[in-house]
Design brief:
mainly beta, Immunoglobulin-like, 2 domains, five-stranded antiparallel β-sheet, globular, disordered N terminus, Neuraminidase, 464 residues
């Protein structure tokens, strides 16, 4: 394997490792999925029964740490954390909660931001989770429900500062057109925001609190959906200064029940919006040219069979998922960087098992998804199947239609070229499978070399 290939694979793994902080989702009515399998599979045990906003966080290896509906925080064991009740989110707040790590580098410290539900007097606030407490299962610290914005809508999003260390927490006020960007640094949260008065007023009917606010994963754009008045706006975001500018009114859906969910593609080239009813997903090409060109690029790329769409959210596999109210499946956009129908909208892509979706999906720190490429699909060819990928403790290699008496040699190398496994097999079976224990291997990229007769096949997989 050449040095360029090795370098690219190592770079890929560093991205995959980081993005797996979003590996476990809990949402809706006891619904959950994990991306520690490929494709994702249902999770059980989740305690959330939430109509809209929620969040979850895992470590970089994809192990669940905690999750929240903005009111209660549950630990990895699905037990309410000490001091983990009475947060200022709401059962029907669009983005009731979002969690970010400590920019100061403390791996045990997380900031949980909560956005209020309409028709309440709660502020946008934050609490600090300390993972050293409660026998390592975490605890909501004494720093709890600290108010930072008293006139907040149900919107909150987060993205890296230009320096790649500090974090912008961005909300929107109700009754005016003010965006408020708060900077979180190693020193803590600056509670004096950068205020940008730009775009349309989010006011009037209380239902105009509803709808997602999303920052693009690489930090250059902001999009806001306002549900009751049925409009969507796009803005530039300066991730150095926190200033929001250059509003573009993308569209109205006056004949619908409103625009609600939003998500950017990982490469920042597309914006997706979900319309609740009729249940459609619209794509905008942000590289189309002028503002008029972006508006004109609107393309309906998918229609939900349930006809009651909710949130859109990127997963660690670089696909975008759509939740549908009352459904036990999620739809999926397989290739969100692609234009039009090439993005690959698939209905009922993931089962939720016994759980049911409502309107919300977990809200994540947008920067997790900047230019991610996801995890590789299971690699197959005419003769060989390798699964699962990523692998846990056991790797399966299946040889299909191998010739009787052929000797096959398997060799596996780690990312620095060390051979960690070798075995030869002489099989007369038309389909032979070997199982390799990987439980003592370090997480990372591995390269499988298979030689049968004069034919050599190489495959790549991840251990995590």
């Amino acid at each position: 394997m050449n040095k360029l290939s090795l370098g690219l694979l190592c770079l890929f793994f560093s991205h995959a490792n980081a993005q797996f902080q979003s590996a476990n989702w809990f949402f809706g009515s006891q619904a959950g999925i994990t991306f520690n399998t490929n494709p994702p599979t249902p999770l059980t045990g989740g305690q959330i029964n939430q109509q809209e906003g929620c969040c979850s966080i895992s470590d970089s290896a994809g192990n669940l740490l905690f999750y929240s509906d903005g009111i209660t925080v549950w630990d990895r064991n699905h037990t309410v954390m000490p001091n983990g009740t009475g947060l200022f989110g709401g059962a029907s707040s669009t983005q009731s909660s979002i969690v970010v790590h400590d920019p100061g580098g403390d791996p045990s410290k997380y900031y949980l931001f909560t956005a209020p539900q309409e028709l309440t007097t709660q502020p946008l606030a934050y609490s600090i989770i300390d993972m050293t407490l409660n026998n390592g299962n975490g605890d909501v610290s004494a720093i709890k429900n600290v108010p930072i914005l008293n006139t907040s809508t149900e919107k909150v999003t987060a993205v890296f500062h230009k320096n790649g260390t500090d974090i912008w927490i961005i909300g929107h006020e109700f009754g005016n057109n003010n965006f408020d960007a708060f900077l979180l640094t190693a020193s803590g949260l600056n509670t004096t925001p950068v205020v940008s008065s730009v775009g349309s007023v989010h006011g009037g009917d209380a239902n105009n609190n509803i709808g997602y606010l999303k920052a693009s994963p690489c930090g250059n754009k902001i999009a806001a959906a306002v549900w009751w008045d049925d409009f969507l706006e796009l803005f530039d975001f300066n991730d150095s200064t926190g200033v929001v500018s250059n509003p573009v009114h993308l569209g109205n859906w006056f004949a619908s029940s409103g625009v609600y969910g939003l998500e950017f593609s990982p490469d920042n080239s597309k914006l997706y919006a979900s319309i609740i009813t009729p249940g459609i997903v619209v794509q905008y090409d942000l590289l189309a040219g002028s503002s008029a060109d972006i508006i004109a690029s609107a393309d309906t790329i998918g229609t939900s069979a349930v006809n009651f769409n909710g949130a859109l959210q990127t997963g660690p596999d670089a696909k975008i998922y759509l939740v549908k109210f009352g459904s036990n499946t999620l739809d999926c956009i397989l290739k969100p960087n692609e234009s039009g129908i090439a993005c690959g909208y698939v209905i009922d892509y993931v089962s939720l098992g016994t759980g049911l979706g409502q309107l919300g999906l977990p809200d994540f720190f947008s920067s997790f998804f900047c230019n991610i490429v996801g995890v590789p699909e299971i690699e197959t060819d005419e003769a060989i199947t390798l699964f699962p990928n990523p692998v846990g403790d056991v790797l399966h290699i299946r040889l299909n239609n191998n010739s009787a008496g052929d000797e096959t040699t398997f060799r596996i190398f780690n990312a620095i070229g060390q051979c960690v496994f070798t075995q030869s097999k002489n099989s007369s079976e038309p389909k032979a499978e070997i199982q390799i224990s990987t439980q003592d291997w370090a997480n990372g990229i591995y390269f499988l070399n298979i030689r049968t007769g004069k034919k050599t096949t190489e495959k790549t997989f991840i251990r995590m």
